[in-house]
Design goal:
Elements (H helix, E strand, L loop, with lengths): L1 E5 L4 E5 L2 E5 L13 E5 L2 H10 L4 E2 L7 E2 L6 H8 L4 E6 L2 E8 L2 E9 L1 H11 L20 H21 L4 E4 L3 H5 L6 E2 L3 H15 L3
Helix pairs in contact: 2-6
């Protein structure tokens, strides 16, 4: 059994603890990847998957979570189902922050991803173009424009996470999860978090309960 998390940038796959990613346009059929279950946040990339693997099963209708949040994406539900108590930060094209307590989802928020911050700055002015300095330190005020942009982007993310997390355990996943986790002592970085939630959902369906 193979699991697939279809994001805005890549298709992420999981099999027996191994995680890898593939560009949708480069996906090739492999019978060894069946049966396959997926969740998706991209209709366009889902079409790519189903053209190659028409028998893939969409887990979204079965993703149940105790929450009052309206419109919570299947990928966020899956990540939350992988943690019974703690704060989950999924850092991809967007950065989602969700709070779980006793298997209940208390709510969450969404920030632009690191790459999107750069695009937003460029949209303001071409002078603000260029890549962020991810080695920026917070213990001194920036002395050039690139560092000023980087400081503003990173600190806004870090402070938002801190204010939401308080004393809860932090779990990071997603492409930039490992990078952001280094700002928080004791944080757990887990690339398989979404897949753990998907596996839990499959087990619930086979067991006939939540």
């Amino acid at each position: 059994m193979v699991l697939c998390d279809i994001g805005n940038s890549y298709l992420h796959f999981y099999y027996n603890g191994r995680v890898w990613k593939v560009q949708a346009e480069r996906l090739e059929r492999d019978e060894a990847l069946l049966p396959m279950y997926y969740v998706s946040v991209s209709q366009k990339k889902t079409k790519y998957l189903l053209e190659i693997f028409p028998e893939a099963i969409n887990l979204t209708p079965y993703m149940l979570l105790d929450t009052a949040y309206i419109g919570l994406g299947a990928d966020r539900i899956a990540a939350c189902k992988g943690v019974s108590d703690g704060v989950i930060v999924d850092a991809g094209s967007a950065i989602t922050i969700d709070v779980m307590q006793d298997n209940m989802h208390l709510g969450g928020c969404i920030l632009p991803g690191l790459v999107m911050y750069g695009k937003m700055y460029r949209a303001i002015s071409s002078v603000l173009g260029g890549e962020l300095n991810l080695a920026i330190e917070f213990n001194a005020f920036p002395q050039n424009t690139r560092d000023a942009l980087s400081y503003g982007a990173l600190k806004s993310i870090v402070l938002t996470i801190e204010s939401i997390a308080k004393n809860k355990k932090l779990y990071f996943t997603g492409g930039d999860g490992k990078f952001l986790a280094r700002f928080f002592a004791g944080a757990i970085q887990d690339d398989s978090l979404v897949f753990k939630g998907m596996l839990r959902t499959i087990a619930e369906q086979k067991g006939g309960g939540r």
